[in-house]
Amino acid sequence: MTGKTNYSNSQLTLLVVLRVLIGWHFLYEGLSKLVNPDWSSVAFLLDSKGVFSSLFSSLATNPNVLKIVDFMNIWGLILIGLGLILGLFTRISIIAGIALLGIYYLSHPPMVGFSFSVPSEGSYLWVNKNLIELAALSVLLVFPTWKKTGIDRFIF
User: Fold this and answer.
1) Quick check: 24 and 85 in contact, CB under 8 A?
2) C-alpha–C-alpha distance, residues 114 and 88, integer Å
3) How wide is the angle at C-alpha 35 spanned by C-alphas 120 and 91, nearest 5°?
4) Which sign does the torsion angle of CA 30, 32, 35, 36 carry?
5) DSSP codes of every residue in 11-52
6) Which of 12, 13, 44, 74 is a plausible cystine mate for 7, CB 3.0–4.6 Å?
């Protein structure tokens, strides 16, 4: 993560806005799951397609494991979102966000011939919002704005 950290005002502003917007999306998704007492990842996991579908199905069929998965998903989303918004442990938040989005993408890959019980927001071929957000977080990882803005600036 070495390299240029002297951004123009517009570069820094847009990178930070991107970080905060993605953080808001993570935070909102986590909070909406937290406040919904009926939410569970079971349907999402059982609806999985692709190379890891058997793994995701096995997570859903074990009630104790499912409780852990749901807890980690909710709090992962919330903590990643807060980290990105506040610029706190930003690098860790970005990497965790990339990992979580990668899991979502692999669980429900937008491939020809796959249909899912939960309708998607559009018709996708290879590229969906999870992949786009993952790519955006990858950009943020190589442009370390946390060295200039956010709480990390004061900690590190």
Assistant:
1) yes
2) 38
3) 70
4) negative
5) HHHHHHHHHHHHHHHHHHHHHHHHT-TT--SHHHHHT--STT
6) 12
Are 50 and 109 in contact by the 8 Å Cβ rule? The answer is yes
pLDDT(120) > 70: no
Is residue 149 one of the residues assigned to a domain? Answer: yes
Cβ atoms 85, 20 nearer than 8 A: yes
Reading the block at residue 153, the tokens are: 């600036």
How much of the chain exceeds pLDDT 70, in percent?
90
Q: Are 40 and 14 in contact (CB under 8 A)?
A: no
Q: How confident is the model at residue 138 (pLDDT cuts 50, 70, 90)?
A: very high
Number of domains in the chain: 1
Is 1 among the domain residues? no
Q: Residue type at 57?
A: S
pTM > 0.85: yes
- The answer to whether the CB of 76 falls within 8 A of the CB of 96 is yes
Residue pair 34/155 in contact by the 8 Å Cβ criterion: no
- The residue range of the domain holding 138 is 9-155
2 inside domain: no
